[in-house]
Write a structure and sequence with these properties.
The structure holds two protein chains of two kinds.
Chain A: E1 8-11, H1 17-26, E2 33-40, E3 57-62, H2 66-81, E4 84-92, E5 94-97, E6 101-109, H3 112-129, E7 132-138, E8 141-144, H4 149-156
Parallel strand pairs in A: 1-4
Antiparallel strand pairs in A: 2-6, 3-5, 3-7, 4-6, 7-8
Chain B: E1 2-7, H1 10-15, E2 18-22, H2 34-42, H3 46-51, E3 59-62, E4 65-67, E5 78-82
Parallel strand pairs in B: 1-5
Antiparallel strand pairs in B: 1-2, 3-4, 3-5
Classes of the chains: A alpha+beta, B alpha+beta.
């Protein structure tokens, strides 16, 4: 048997959704449902009221080491809760322009219900527990993105977490 | 006791990436918990007082696991202070 492919990548490079899905499916003939979430950098209006400019971007900082172990722990928990046959998480760091992909979560299961739920669970966890920080950078300045209470509420619906 | 402190995001911009702390065995002011360490650091400089102010909703990690202010400080631990996370 070959070594299991990496479940978690934190990288500056872009990722390819269809390639990642194909790799997951090739590992297991029992997979009957694949759900994927791709987060992208959307346009935003600078807080100071300045006009949007094409060079606005996000800068993503993270805590090397803890980021990977926190996501691995979150996948372990997802596998305890859901009947999963495969998971892949990729999160980009560094400077990202409007329109670029930031995050990929792919869950694979025999049937769709478990794959949908697990994908949402993983994203809710990732938004509130994985040590990433976003900074919006525009021509006129920069500001750190503030955490949203709605993200904590989204995680709370999954009950007690380890 | 030795502790490595790491800072991220807004806290890092004010204080740099972190600092290595060392207390002699007979020191009287050694913090016992992560919350006490934050208080101790606040006393170090005006920049520390600003970056770690008690009213800021900062999070902490002990040896790369999220923890509360009540978490005891293990010898040689890596303690991180940072704002609520905003990835995804």
């Amino acid at each position: 048997m070959s070594m299991a492919a990496a479940r978690v990548s934190v990288q500056t490079d872009d990722f390819d959704l269809s390639g990642e899905v194909a790799r997951l499916r090739a590992q297991d003939g029992q997979i009957g449902a694949v759900v994927s979430f791709v987060g992208t950098v959307r346009e935003w209006l600078p807080a100071d009221g300045a006009a949007r400019s094409p060079d606005t971007c996000l800068e993503l900082e993270h805590y090397p080491g803890m980021t990977e172990s926190a996501i691995e722990a979150m996948i372990d928990e997802a596998q305890r809760r859901f009947d999963l046959r495969g998971v892949r998480v990729i999160h980009r760091v560094g400077r990202l322009a409007v329109g670029e992909q930031i995050v990929l979560v792919v869950t694979a299961s025999s049937h769709r219900g478990q794959a949908f739920d697990a994908c949402e669970f993983l994203m809710d966890w990732l938004k509130t527990q994985a040590p990433f920080w976003k900074k919006e950078i525009s021509a006129t300045g920069s500001r750190w993105v503030e955490a949203k209470v709605s993200d904590d509420e989204a995680l709370a619906r999954w009950g007690t977490l380890p | 006791m030795k502790i490595t402190v790491r800072y991220f995001a807004q806290v890092r911009e004010l204080l740099g990436p972190g600092e290595d702390l060392h207390w002699p065995a007979d020191a009287a002011d050694v913090p016992a918990t992560v919350g006490e360490l934050r208080q101790w650091l606040i006393g170090r400089s005006p920049a520390h007082a600003q970056a770690l102010d008690a009213t800021l909703p900062l999070r902490a990690a002990c040896n790369q696991l999220m923890c509360s202010a009540q978490e005891p400080l293990p010898e040689g631990a890596e303690i991180a202070f940072f704002p609520p996370v905003t990835g995804g």
